[in-house]
Amino acid sequence: MQHAVELEELGVRITEASRFIAKAEEQLARRVIGQHNVIRRIFIAMLVNGHILLEGVPGLAKTLIIRTFAAAMNLKFQRIQFTPDMLPADLIGTMIYNPKDLEFYPRKGPVFANVILADEINRSPAKVQSALLEAMQERQVTIGTQTFPLQEPFLVLATQNPIEHEGTYVLPEAQVDRFMMKILVDYPSYDEELEIMLQSATNATAAPIIPVVQPDDIAKARTLIDLIYVDPRVQRYIVDLVVASRKPAQYGIASLETMIEFGASPRASIFLLLASKAHAFLQHRAYITPEDVKAIAYDTLRHRIRPGYEAEADNIKPDDIIRQILQHVQVP
């Protein structure tokens, strides 16, 4: 009974603390038409210190969404265009010699911001990709002999074009695994595209965005998300989903044994739990349900499961494998 009362009180606090999400979404709606799933996932990543890999063809408003998100959240935004001739110093900064003082001084790079749009990350060589991914993981940057912490919150949203492969450097699996989610950005619906066209014709995308969030709002939200209750049965359900991607036969999905080259890493369990907590927070709940886990499973697992040769021959995608796992793993 006491536990139920505590959860009810926490639910009230969460409802109050999550009001800034609705305010930010109102600002986003002034410029962005549709793409509600993408926007919600960005909020989830920000709330639990995750990063996102966005995959979609050009022209789907990825930059507009991220820039508007940063403006509404009152966060410093930096767009970095990744190119084949880019160097790590172009990203993190370098030491500059001052002949007046006869000393070197650090010049910070564009990575020193709250929201980073790493545009076409797969166009840069491995050294640059590694520099960004190290900053994502360590949340600090070393320039010369000095180490500088990155600003909080720190959110990286990296984009890549799925239909263009010339002049690109494929992200290694170990680096892709560091992203909390991989989101597939799809085309807008017919009505949404009609509205986008009319909005563009009237220059409505230039509508001013009012910052409606303070840093304390994000910090408070993160503190409450840590307190969200996770039932042991839901904990095991999360681990079951991840383990089923490695050993599907144990869960009655023997047909997937030859379809999966390798399954999700332990990071998948961690990120699936954190993302589910943030999803519950957006629903104003103080506890996780299996539906929270299912809602976030595709985005959290799709880049951590590599289909095998047979799956590719049958045109079976990671999402098809995840769908079968969700259907066969017992829900608590």
Task: Provide a descriptive summary of the structure in words.
With 332 residues, this protein is of the alpha/beta class. It folds into two domains: 2-204, Rossmann fold (3-Layer(aba) Sandwich); 229-328, Magnesium chelatase subunit I, C-Terminal domain (Helicase, Ruva Protein, domain 3). It is built from 14 helices and eleven strands. Strands 2-5-8-1-9 form a five-stranded parallel beta sheet. The protein has a two-stranded antiparallel ribbon with strand order 3-4. Strands 6-7 form a two-stranded antiparallel ribbon. Strand 3 (93-98) and strand 4 form a beta hairpin. Helix 1 (2-17) packs antiparallel against helix 9 (215-227). The longest helix is centred in the last third of the chain and has 17 residues, at 266-282. The protein is globular. The model has no long low-confidence stretch (mean pLDDT 87).
Provide the low-confidence segments as ranges.
none
- Looking at the structure, the CATH topology of the largest domain is Rossmann fold
Second-tier CATH architecture of the largest domain: 3-Layer(aba) Sandwich
What's the number of domains? 2
Output the number of helix runs: 14
Keywords:
single chain, 332 residues, alpha/beta, Rossmann fold, Helicase, Ruva Protein, domain 3, five-stranded parallel beta sheet, two-stranded antiparallel sheet, 14 helices, 15% strand
